[in-house]
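pasting for the record
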Amino acid sequence: MIFLILFLLIIIIGCIAVGAAFGWASATLQDLPELNPDMLRNPPQASIIYDRSELELVKLSTDQNFRTTVPFVEFPKHLIEALIASEDHNYREHFGVDIFGVIRGIIYGGAMGGGSTITQQLVRNVFLTPDPTFDRKLKEMIMAIRLEQIYSKDEVLYFYLNQVFFGHWAKGAQSAARLYFGKDVKDLNLAESAMIIGLLPAPNEYSPYEDYPLAKRMQAQVLDLMVEYDKITEAEAKAAKDTEILLIGLETVQKENFKSSFWTDYVIQVFPRIMYNAGVYSSEDLAREQLYNGGLQIITTLDYAMQVQTEKCIEEVIQTNQVDAGNLRWTELREDGSHERQVAAVIVETSTGEIVTMVGGREYPEGESLAWNRAVDSLRQPGSCIKPLIDYAPALLRKVITLGTVFDDVPTSWGDWQPKNYDNYYFGLIGIREAFARSQNIPAIKTQSVLGIENGIDFMKRLGFTSLTDDDLFLPSAIGGLSQGVSVLEMTMAYATFMNEGVYTEPLCIKEVRDRNGRTIYRSEPKQRIVLDKQTNYLMLDIMKTAVTLPYGTSRVGNLGRPTAAKTGTTDDFYDLWFCGGTPDYTSAIWIGHDENTAMTDLYSSGIHPRIWREYMSAAHGELPARDWQEPANLVRMPICTVSGMSPSPICPSWKIVNELFLPGTAPISAVKCNVHVEADIDVTNNLLATPQTPSYLVARKVFIRRPIPLPYPLPYGGYPADAAEEIPTQYSPSTGQGTVTTPATPGGSGTPQLPGGTPINPGGFTDPPQITDPEQTAPPISGETTDPFPDITDGEDGQDPEESITVIITEDPPVSTDPEEEIIELIENEGG
């Protein structure tokens, strides 16, 4: 009876257990994850950024996505056989779950290979968690069976070897091969394959970087299993065990794969916006997620070889300045190890706007990412580099000036504002071309006065400047006094507009994007808009070219030995040094300064910014044939007097006559002659007007100027202009005792001067000038060039013309040079503003 009762109890308990087990299994199976094939075929993996020639620059890896998937055919046979022998020797025979393996795992606690098949491990890695629970184990087994009903054995191996964790941050066998051996998985030998498969039970613990002897023991165990299951011979196993393992080094991998640069940071920052705007992704957040996990191939516009060469040129010129001038300020470091004095530069392909070089600083901060990029993030005052952008180009476009326009370069007040030229030196009546070449401030401000600051700011916005505000709607903006400043990239693209026939192009940094399967999902196209018509743009190009070629041109140090158009810029107290310009092939802007405003008076007269620009731009052009810009049709070329902007009269000095360019309908009337140059007889003993009583042997006829608007006396500030000495005298020779002339001589000598009281006199011999029948015969043939007997005052080196930031007292008139080309010393101007 007792046995019967016990038997019935066992049956009852068994039924209850079976029922409970069935209920548990049913509930567990209700919660099975979906077998999402995309999670198998498209696991998160690192995107790679390339340069324009598809040289790999950086893999955008994190410790979550350091994975690169490769096709199944790239996995070596011995790697696959090592995996099967070590993890699941019955893999080819079972249906996803190895029943005998499960029983063996239960009996021996996993010591004989465990109870999970390769398929189960894959399911656990992709769809489940590693929690050691019965629920998870049951789900794993059911899903493994389902998986093998959908995919072949080779497909499961393909998923597995591209998915599983191999230690540190390596996901997938390809990443493991790169992490440990610095090679692709297809190039692994038997010894290396056995070692990384030996890591699988405990990847970080068995890592050769953590415990090399233990990693070797695990490798030997894998090789022995391969022998046991007839995958290799004992001789092959022994040879593999004896093969030297060459590890690339964890620090090397970290530097190669987790490095940042100013360029890659820039690409990372703009990628989401570009992809969203192009309609590739539905949001910037999705584009950002794909950037890090989508396994994208991002081909950028960077020319890596040119980038390296540019950085080299910068440091070489800096080193020369440091040695020659004893300038140790180039080596001063901040607390974080970065240089105090920095350089930023951008080079773009002129016609396409593709950025080929970006220098965001002299070094990238070690251990950082998304560092401060001075080429993009810094907004700095542009100095005189702004003059083409805000003054001259929009004024020419609106036809409020021409290249023949003359302004009086004299101290001038605008309310309480009293701007100055460099070293407070003024030239007087000066044409636009010369004013631009010498980078005089007063003519630029006067240009802005007739243009209207609203029009200047609007034009700059059309050139892509985004930081301009209502606070910039004031005249100081005409010479670079902005409320916030501009970036190096913005300046580069603005100047590229001039180099590209007046067409503004948005900067391009990405040429093409391919998905993980190599399918192109994005290809860039230049986004352009016409800002200047070709004729007006050519006028700007022409004066920028002469700023490079004229002996007193402030941009001449940047001459590339090929057609070059450029402009210098320097701000007050030498906080910022700029040089911007280019050719039909490449355009570039460079900035030198400190992150915090710091005076750099030690660079006064060094001309280092155009020298650096010239060096790296020469290297960028290499063997490219020299090209010039084609002059558009319908421009008018005619001789003018640079003092009046009018057709020259016979008495205009030859060095004051140039063949100038004009837009159709804006050229001076050839029949209306210069009325600024006048001629008079003077007493050579005192340079005053001669009278009938002056002995004839003391009388000489000379040419003077008569200002359209007389100079005020006294001037509001500063000194009198250089041409004040050329003005016609207002007094007669005192030997006559006749006093002051009230009506000066008229152009060409016609007219009758009068004494106080209206008594007319005839100083003798004033005659009307003959009419010019062929004006071209009186002018030199080269556009914009002059024979100037009064070259600019220099500070002793290279013709540098420091502006208002450095004060130099002028004690005498500029020296007369019989050959300006030989005597003038080449320096670059440091502009004020």
